[in-house]
Design the sequence.
């Protein structure tokens, strides 16, 4: 979300969950 958006804090907490994987994360899925 863009800075100041009402759900920005919720998204930050959500994105820090160890269960979440994002395309830009550094994980070795195919190595």
Sequence:
């Amino acid at each position: 979300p863009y800075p100041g958006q009402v759900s920005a804090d919720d998204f930050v907490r959500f994105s820090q969950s160890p269960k979440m994987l994002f395309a830009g994360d550094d994980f070795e899925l195919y190595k």
In short: The longest helix spans residues 8-15. The CA atoms of residues 18 and 25 lie 11 Å apart. The radius of gyration is 12 Å.
